[in-house]
């Protein structure tokens, strides 16, 4: 038995095949390409076929980072600098051959009409119709080796960034001030790039995740703050508004951070200030505190896991704890607490999205055990992490829950 590399097809072989196949020489170009399959000793397992969308292709062409991420117990994802894709192996219905330098039909002809250099009638079909005399028969055979035969490929589907690892890893080393650092295992601390390489999301999404879970950089390590310590820093910063007679949108960053020197480390004060503020529209160079984050923090301080609060009492207590100029609103409980008006005693209770299971079905079971009936606005913050560009919250709920309309409002209940 001869392997492919031991046999070279000649021009005469090609003419014989053409004769047996009853092909018309007028429809053929000058150069034939003989395809040779690899022998069984070649190991091409390192080559994989990846289906890339326009975004991934553009990233590769521009020389930007495109990387695979995934630990032993995780599904693999591929990340660009701004997007995350779930990677799945899919079968190809027909075998696909990878052949480097394979020429397209026009490049195999020396005819000025058929050749791309003629810049006219570049279609092979149209060129053969316009040729009045028979073209030269095949006189050249070029070898083309198959590098690999593919029967499957990697299929990419854009997904939401997987942030849970940020929470799970940073919760182990929460920062509660320099006086408590001796209690922290330094081997569990992560630099920015170390954590980025571990978490399954793109760099841009990773930076958004750090802001979402209020993580800051202290001593060149990414840290989440202890809730009590974070609350203390924020209340100290907010107290400066009254002390300096500032309007809510003319906060001075330098004065604010320097005022906490000797009480809070500079990096902690600076990081918390950046998290909780945004640029002022009225006063260039000044800042204003984000009402949503401040109100959510104060609500988390009041809410405690396992406890229920009567709605009116909770809202009154919440408003009383907020600094002047901030207004408590139910929308600021998004993702951290729920209001249940359908029970015997309408109440508010804590339900932090970051504490729920990462499996969709298990999470739905947990949600419906916590509350039997949900409207879209209530359940959305707990489901949106499972959405994709083509699959929204309503589509997920339509598949995994039952819905009914009560007083013109769509309500979702458990399917089982």
From TrEMBL:
<keyword id="KW-0235">DNA replication</keyword>
<dbReference type="Pfam" id="PF09724">
    <property type="entry name" value="Dcc1"/>
</dbReference>
<feature type="region of interest" description="Disordered">
    <location>
        <begin position="108"/>
        <end position="135"/>
    </location>
</feature>
<dbReference type="GO" id="GO:0000775">
    <property type="term" value="C:chromosome, centromeric region"/>
</dbReference>
<comment type="similarity">
    <text>Belongs to the DCC1 family.</text>
</comment>
<protein>
    <recommendedName>
        <fullName>Sister chromatid cohesion protein DCC1</fullName>
    </recommendedName>
</protein>
<dbReference type="InterPro" id="IPR019128">
    <property type="entry name" value="Dcc1"/>
</dbReference>
<dbReference type="GO" id="GO:0006260">
    <property type="term" value="P:DNA replication"/>
</dbReference>
<dbReference type="GO" id="GO:0034088">
    <property type="term" value="P:maintenance of mitotic sister chromatid cohesion"/>
</dbReference>
<dbReference type="GO" id="GO:0031390">
    <property type="term" value="C:Ctf18 RFC-like complex"/>
</dbReference>
<dbReference type="GO" id="GO:0000785">
    <property type="term" value="C:chromatin"/>
</dbReference>
């Amino acid at each position: 038995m001869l392997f492919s590399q031991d046999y070279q097809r000649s021009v005469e072989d090609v003419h014989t095949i053409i004769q047996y196949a009853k092909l018309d020489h007028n429809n053929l170009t000058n150069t034939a390409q003989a395809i040779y399959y690899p022998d069984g000793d070649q190991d091409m397992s390192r080559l994989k076929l990846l289906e890339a969308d326009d975004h991934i292709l553009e990233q590769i062409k521009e020389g930007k980072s495109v990387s695979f991420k995934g630990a032993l117990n995780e599904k693999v994802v591929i990340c660009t600098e701004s997007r995350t894709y779930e990677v799945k192996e899919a079968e190809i219905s027909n075998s696909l051959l990878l052949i480097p330098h394979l020429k397209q039909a026009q490049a195999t002809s020396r005819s000025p009409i058929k050749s791309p250099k003629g810049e006219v009638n570049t279609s092979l079909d149209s060129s053969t119709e316009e040729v009045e005399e028979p073209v030269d028969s095949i006189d050249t055979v070029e070898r083309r080796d198959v590098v690999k035969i593919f029967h499957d490929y990697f299929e990419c589907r854009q997904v939401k960034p997987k942030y849970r690892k940020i929470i799970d890893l940073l919760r182990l080393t929460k920062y509660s001030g320099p006086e408590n650092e001796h209690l922290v295992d330094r081997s569990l601390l992560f630099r920015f790039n170390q954590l980025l390489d571990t978490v399954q999301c793109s760099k841009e999404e990773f930076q958004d995740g750090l802001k979402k879970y209020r993580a800051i950089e202290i001593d060149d390590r990414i840290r989440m703050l202890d809730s009590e310590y974070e609350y203390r820093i924020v209340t100290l910063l907010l107290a400066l508004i009254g002390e300096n007679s500032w309007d809510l949108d003319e906060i001075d960053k330098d004065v604010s951070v320097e005022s906490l020197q000797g009480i809070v480390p500079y990096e902690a004060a600076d990081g918390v200030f950046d998290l909780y503020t945004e640029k002022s529209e009225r006063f260039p160079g000044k800042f204003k505190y984000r009402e949503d984050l401040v109100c959510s923090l104060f609500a988390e301080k009041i809410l405690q896991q396992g406890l229920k609060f009567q709605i009116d009492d909770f809202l009154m207590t919440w408003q009383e704890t907020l600094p002047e100029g901030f207004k408590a609103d139910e929308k600021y409980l998004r993702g951290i607490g729920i209001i249940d008006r359908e029970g015997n005693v309408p109440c508010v209770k804590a339900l932090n999205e970051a504490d729920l299971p990462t499996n969709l079905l298990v999470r739905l079971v947990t949600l419906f055990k916590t509350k039997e009936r949900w409207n879209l606005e209530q359940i959305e913050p707990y489901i949106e992490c499972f959405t994709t560009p083509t699959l929204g919250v309503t589509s997920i709920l339509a598949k995994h829950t039952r819905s009914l309309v009560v007083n013109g409002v769509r309500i979702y209940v458990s399917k089982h």
